[in-house]
Design brief:
It contains no helices and six strands. By secondary structure, the protein is mainly beta.
Length: about 80
Amino acid sequence: MRVKSYKMRSVSLAKGKTTPVDLDLEFEGGRAFVIWDSISLGDFLLKARVEINPLLLRKDSANAGLDFLYQGELVLPRPENN
């Protein structure tokens, strides 16, 4: 299956505060994922992906370099909680 990559902006919740965050976005069929982190391992690229609701994505033509705005709550894993 072919994966399509884009850029998106959302608001992340951390310690009771909202922070704007820009992330890579991938689609697989009707599913959407933000790329939280990635690491190269030889010829392989390992990605930590978080699935999001694709119905909450809106096309963004106002911000250069961004394809979508995510209008849902984005809760990303914190390294200290792993």
